[in-house]
Amino acid sequence: MESRISTILARYPKTLFIAWSVLASFGAYFCMYAFRKPFNTGLYEGLTLWGLDYKTILIVMQVLGYMLSKFIGIKVIAELKAKNRISLIIALILFAELSLLGFGSVPHPYNWIFLFLNGLPLGMVWGVVFSFLEGRRFTEVLVFGLSISVIVSSGILKSIYLVINNWMPGVNEFWMPFVMGAYFLPLFVLFVWMLSVIPAPTAADKRQRMERIPMDNVQKKAALSFFGTGLLCVIIIYALLTTLRDFRDNFSVEIWNTIDPHWQSGFLSFTELVAGVVVLVLIALLSLIKDNHLGFWATVSLIAMGLLGCSLTTLLYQQHVLSAFSWTLLLGVSLFMAYTPIQTVFFDRLLAVSRFRGNAGFFIYICDTAGYLGSVTLLLYKEFFIAVPDPAQILINFSYGTSVVGFTVLLGAAWFFRRLNPVRKSTVQPTHHFN
After folding, report:
1. What is the spatial distance between Cα 131 and Cα 85, in angstroms, rounded to a whole number?
2. In the beta sheet, which residues pair with residue 53?
3. Max alpha carbon distance in the chain (Å)?
4. Which of 52, 81, 30, 24 is nearest to 272 (CA)?
5. Residue 69 and residue 124 in contact, taking contact as beta carbons nearer than 8 Å
6. What is the pLDDT along the chain (435 residues), one digit of tens a residue?
7. What angle do CA 283, 14, 430 make, to 5 degrees?
8. Within its chain, how far is the Cα of 162 from the centroid?
9. Which residues pair with residue 48 across a beta bridge?
10. Residue 49's beta-bridge partner residues?
11. Distance CA 170, CA 84 (A)
């Protein structure tokens, strides 16, 4: 049956293939968030450990596990073979759910270790899902589902968490993450099966976007040498954006309590959904640009607009031009306008225009490792160096910092990548050189 579905997807109109791939990737990654994010909807009020707020400790522990997962993913995802994808992703999720069982079973203050274990496998799920989509002539469209899940899943799942919590008032905030995971596990398996029948890239895909291959240590070293300073600049930008995104997400309830005491839980999902649709329509439009060189620079321009938008929307909010709701919405649009292209299509286009043989997962996981290190650093800074932490003010300050520093570094990256050879003919053989 699986081979028959793969044949149908390969032979019939591309709209069917695109719709199947978008739904499968969105569903799989959306369900992954059900194992990762619901715990931070709980407030854990009055609980401390080592003199620190217990929720901060839980977030830091999970992010540390997630960061370590990204570091491991630099090797695992870069070297991952197609035949091992499904078994790996199922094993990762089952390990995460068992960790949530431990989080609920073991009492405070000894259960924080299980959130570290929970984060440890989850950081590699994105790379497995993305490996089904990269290196295709319309990757920008295929990643629509994966990308929108990154943007909207956390907010939607937090709203679902609050609804289920009302239905099951006897389930405390330590057990709710496991309950959420149990609800979504069957759906996750369904969407993973859908991923498993997606046909491999065609010969035309490989000609236009380069064949994507597992990378050994020699190829990884060659990639780091080849992209050098430009890659370092992108890593810095992505680290700033990831830190901003994570802080805004982890403390969204506290931020809303500060900026609008009368906010409603539906705001969490609505603002992210609107931001997701706007940003991903823009990214999908990039697929209309067939020329890889022009497509690459259009992607860079989108990142630049997003970075500038972070500071502009924050300034307008402080000047009382924007309401709290409008600021949260537009800041989300700007943030993801810069963040999402780097996570999805930037390196896909970079490999295509440079004619460098490898896979985008290697580069993205290097960026992710730096990003989550920044996220942990900001959390610790908030806890140790701010006398009375105000999440809303921290968000404002970091929005300005990300915008100014990120845009400046982006100019440096653009100066480096300007030397990329603009290969315009799909028949040109891979080179590994700049002009």
Report:
1. 9
2. 48
3. 66
4. 30
5. yes
6. 667 888 888 876 688 888 999 999 999 999 999 998 877 777 788 888 887 788 888 888 998 898 899 999 999 999 998 899 999 999 999 999 999 999 999 988 899 999 999 999 999 999 999 999 888 887 878 887 887 787 778 778 877 888 887 887 777 888 989 999 999 999 999 999 999 999 888 888 888 777 788 898 899 999 999 898 999 999 999 999 999 988 888 788 788 888 988 887 677 778 877 887 888 788 888 888 888 899 999 999 999 999 999 999 999 999 999 999 999 999 999 999 999 899 888 998 898 888 888 888 899 999 988 988 888 787 777 767 666 678 889 899 999 999 999 999 999 999 999 877 554 443 333 444 433
7. 65
8. 23
9. 53
10. 52
11. 41
φ, ψ at 62 (rounded to 5°): -65, -40
The two three-digit tokens of residue 132, written as one number: 């089904």
Query: What token pair was written down for 207?
Result: 């000609």
| Number of residues in the chain | 435
The whole-angstrom separation of Cα 343 and Cα 70 is 13
- Residue 9's φ and ψ, nearest 5 degrees, are -65, -30
According to the 3-state scheme, what is the secondary structure of the chain? CHHHHHHHHHHCCHHHHHHHHHHHHHHHHHHHHHHHCHHHHCCCCCCEECCEEHHHHHHHHHHHHHHHHHHHHHHHHHHCCHHHHHHHHHHHHHHHHHHHHHHHHCCCCCCHHHHHHHHHHHCCHHHHHHHCCCCCCCHHHHHHHHHHHHHHHHHHHHHHHHHHHHHCCCCCCCCHHHHHHHHHHHHHHHHHHHHHCCCCCCHHHHHHHCCECCCCHHHHHHHHHHHHHHHHHHHHHHHHHHHHHHHHHHCHHHHHHHHCCCCCCHHHHHHHHHHHHHHHHHHHHHHHCCCHHHHHHHHHHHHHHHHHHHHHHHHHHHCCCCCHHHHHHHHHHHHHHHHHHHHHHHHHHHHHHHCCCECHHHHHHHHHHHHHHHHHHHHHHHHHHCCCCCHHHHHHHHHHHHHHHHHHHHHHHHHHHCCCCCCCCCCCCCCCCCC
Report whether 67 contacts 369 (CB < 8 A). yes
| Tokens 């380069």 sit on residue | 210
Location of structure tokens 């000894």: 110
For the record, the structure tokens of 406 come out as: 């990120």
